[in-house]
Amino acid sequence: MGINDRVGTGLKGFDQIIDHLRLGDNVVWQVDSVSDYKKLADPFAGQARSDNRRLVYIRFGTHEQLFEESSGVKIYYIDSSKGFESFATEVHNLIRNEGKKVFYVFDCLTDLLKHWYSDLMIGNFFKVTCPYLYELDTVAYFAIMRNYHTYSTIAGIRETTQLLLDLYQVNNKFYIHPLKVWQRYSPTMFFPHLIAGQEAVSITASTEAAELFSSINRGEDRPDHWNIIFNRAKDVLKQPHQEQEEAKKLLMFMLIGNQSRMFDLCNRYFTLQDILLIASREVGTGFIGGKSVGMLLARKILEKEGSGRFTAYVEPHDSYYIGSDVFYTYIVQNGWWRLRTKQKAGEGYYKYAPELKDKLLRGKFPKNIQEQFIQMLEYFGQSPIIVRSSSLLEDNFGNAFAGKYESVFCVNQGTPEERYEAFEEAIRTVYASTMNEDALAYRMNRGLSERDEQMAILVQRVSGDQYGEDFFPHVAGVGNSSNLYVWDQNIDMDAGMLRLVFGLGTRAVDRTEGDYPRIVCLDNPQRLPPMNIEDQKKFSQHSVDVLSLKENMLVVKTLEDILSGNIKVDRELFASPDYQNAARLRELGYTHTKLQYVLDYKKLFARSEFHSVMKDMLALLSKVYDYPVDIEYTANFTKDNRFKINLLQCRPLQTRGLGKSVDIPELEDERACLFYSRGNFMGGNVRLPIDYVVFIKAREYLELNEQDKYSIARQVGQLNRELAGKNVMLMGPGRWGSTTPSLGVPVHFTELCNMSVICEVAAKQAGLMPELSYGSHFFQDLVEAGIFYVALFDGNKDVIFNPEKILGRENLMVELLPQSGQFSGVIHVAETKGMEIFSDIVSQTLLCI
Predict the structure, then answer these.
(1) How far is the C-alpha of 74 from the C-alpha of 9, rounded, in Å?
(2) pTM (2 decimals)?
(3) pLDDT digits over 388-446, tens only?
(4) Does the keyword Transferase apply (predicted)?
């Protein structure tokens, strides 16, 4: 070691004891007060100044300030209330900018508990900051309050730091007791030392040492500060209401987050007892996330405001919540925080996401978290569970994050070891989904890329029952309190709607191949979307998602397979016999075929209160939220048509509103418009100019092989970027965003997010049909992006379509994308200045002219 690497503490006698500090050292002092810490920080600062060292003071605490502005020390003021990630990232960036061989004094780390509430996160901060300081040859002073932190926190700090020292004041005398001094040793180094001015006297005599330490309270292991606060709150339950309200608010800040519309609603409906019950089911510490909050709040609203209306119908829940601090701890303790910081910064946002995603899928959890996971799984036994994302920004006013993060079913069969491994894998999958391309783009497009997006997790028991070797609910889906997708002027938009499927609700939130969920207008649930009678079976649900207990995974089964078994209720509650098909088969000579069914839910709506309960439930939630709402639910029935609804999720439903009424021009010549339709649009009343139309030709598209169909989708994505800022209408056959190219163009939402209008055109001869996707994740993306939606059923009554109005214009495809000439026979891009779309909700009229 060179002489220039030796650093003084400002106490010459103590320097001799520890053989000086070294560049790279992090020095942690355990103290009884901040004023004691200042007695060590002052000589360190004085020595640094005399040695012409750059000295930086990191100020974040509420305790007395260690150095004043006039002291010649560079001071950074950092707001720790913004949370762990923002704080740690800001500290990391300033350390990087300051460069090598800078000296630092940090405020007392214990003060971070005032905003973070968790010992665990203080340890995490030290673990990500200390190694970086070491790499840059700095010397840094830290302090923690003695007997205030858990043994595990101290152990983590001891393991990471270079020096850990106790500072005691006994009978007005100061003693320093080194506990760890890295890569240095002397025969007296680890004795306590009396500090007298610049002298340090080793206490080597057993009598003196015993007398000193017997007068010091060493303390016992403490629970995490988090648990201390919640334990104190239990005692407040016996106190007056006002004290309970104050305690409740503090716990809500810890579990739910900062002041917001959702926080205010929670404060209105949750009691202190409610919050303590939630906390008792949390694994780790930190926020429980938006999805958990939304589910719990909705249930509480129904309980308190429902006047008993829903008591008999709501299935209880016994969910668990994995706190958001576990997500950060997982990253920190696996050594990925530096990569996380690089990914959050500017050009690294997309660049480093794949690497971080891969690592998130392969990490290990701390032992104490593993033990809590085991206890949770023992509670659920072999009941299937679902592991759901519940990030901080999810399901809030303004940001739904619909479908951006993963949810994973754990069928939960096998040995305890196998079930545990599957559960851990599910957690990793949800964590890794924070780096999904769609999630990254969503956060970027909505200005959220700089915000902390911690991932909490909601663990729910899967609603349903065992039917043979399968497990599923009878029905599931999503519901909206406002029905913005209407096809009939008689529909009451305020009555709400359901998107309803048989079996697991996965088919309700996604657009699935060959299947159409039932769209239910709650003012008249028997009303069907526009289609011919003979098409009712074709455009219904044919497959069912279930959990296979035998295969220990989610599987797809045919409706016939499920309905032929015992579903413990009359199958005709959900499905009607397909007598028309049976008659046709008899005509063809098939006399022994099994009777098939069509999922139409006729008897469900005629014989049960299901739709009226759902209507009232949505109306009440919307009223209390003072905002339209979007829910996910399941329902299970008994033979006497009684049922239980499991409310799985509730969030504000982002809507554009209807807009002012629009005067629609008279159409004197049918050949003058691009299209005209009655109904089948979504986006309110509009008068919207169209600058360009991107038109995918149905026949030419269908003739492509599958690889080329995917290439068309990528070309649409390039046009989406090239024409950003223009009013563009995207028209194509079948379903936009389908995962199956034979059903439509398989674009990602990020490849059409800049469009003003998307139009799905029916190509019946090829089986390409729009899907009334209201209520799906795809729909939510459209609404949040403000994209007007049209489903054009060419050939139907009240529909006019003249594609030559586009195809007769010059194709600008090659001009816009010079390298994409081979696709110009399929994609036609026309400039259409002067074209406008008019829509009117009341008359259900749509015109593009």
Answers:
(1) 19
(2) 0.83
(3) 999 877 655 555 555 678 899 999 999 999 999 999 999 999 999 999 888 888 777 76
(4) yes
Quickly list H helices, 801-849.
804-807, 813-816
**Per the structure block, which two tokens stand in for 133?**
């300081």
**What is the residue-wise DSSP string for 289-331?**
-HHHHHHHHHHHHHHHHSTTTTTTTBPP---EEE-HHHHHHHH
Helix segments in 754-838, DSSP class H: 777-785, 804-807, 813-816
- How many CA atoms, within 13 angstroms, populate the side-chain half-sphere of residue 293? 33
C-alpha span between 248 and 264 (Å, rounded): 12
Structure tokens at 582: 């049976």
239 to each of 77, 232, 233, 275, 798, how far by Cα in Å?
38, 12, 10, 16, 68
User: Which residues touch 240 (CB under 8 Å, ≥6 apart)?
Assistant: none
Estimate to the nearest angstrom the gap between the alpha carbon of 707 and the chain centroid. Answer: 32
Q: Are 272 and 251 in contact (CB under 8 A)?
A: yes
Helical H segments across 753-821, by residue range: 777-785, 804-807, 813-816
pLDDT band at residue 675, thresholds of 50, 70 and 90?
A: very high
Mean pLDDT of 353-358: 96
Host H or E run for residue 213: helix 206-214
642 contact partners, CB below 8 Å, separation of at least 6:
none
Token pair belonging to 254: 């810890």
> Are 57 and 68 contacting, i.e. CB atoms less than 8 angstroms apart?
no
Amino acid found at 752: L
Residue 160 in tokens: 């990471």
Nearest in space to 788 (alpha carbons), one of 798, 779, 800, 776 = 779
Q: Do 23 and 5 meet the contact criterion of CB atoms below 8 Å apart?
A: yes
Q: Give just the sign of the alpha carbon dihedral 229, 233, 235, 239.
A: positive
Residues 347, 365: Cα–Cα separation, whole Å: 30
Structure tokens at 645: 């609804």
Q: Tell me the pLDDT tens digit for each residue of 792-803.
A: 888 888 899 999
Q: In what order do the strands lie in the sheet with 643-652?
A: 518-521, 497-502, 475-480, 629-637, 643-652
Helix count and strand count (H, E) for the chain: 29, 36
Which residues does residue 408 pair with via DSSP β-bridges, in sequence order? 387
Find out whether 144 and 28 touch, Cβ atoms under 8 Å. Answer: yes
* H or E element that contains 599: strand 597-599
Distance CA 561, CA 88 (A): 55
E strands, 629-724, where?
A: 629-637, 643-652, 675-678, 681-682, 686-696
Please state, in angstroms and rounded to a whole number, the distance separating the CA atoms of residues 809 and 569.
Answer: 59
Say how far apart CA 799 and CA 530 lie, in whole Å: 12
Q: Residue 774's pLDDT is what? A: 47
- Residue 392's contacts (CB-CB under 8 Å, 6 or more residues apart) are 257, 287, 289, 290, 324, 452, 453, 454, 456
Q: Which of 451, 453, 331 is nearest to 391 (CA)?
A: 453
Q: Classify residue 560 as exposed, middle or buried by CB count within 10 Å of its CB (0-12, 13-18, 19+).
A: middle
Mean pLDDT, residues 680-694: 88
d(CA 387, CA 404): 14
Residue showing tokens 């990490």 = 363
For residue 451, what are its two tokens? 């915000």
Element (H, E) at 246: helix 241-255
Give the Cβ contact number of residue 366 at 10 Å.
18
Which secondary-structure segment (H or E) carries 836? Answer: strand 827-840
Give, in degrees to the nearest 5, the angle at Cα 696 between 693 and 699. Answer: 145
H or E stretch at 546: strand 543-548
Q: What is the pLDDT of residues 277-287, one digit of tens each?
A: 999 999 999 99
Q: Which pair of tokens denotes residue 267?
A: 């404060």
Burial of 517 (0-12, 13-18, 19+ CB in 10 A): buried
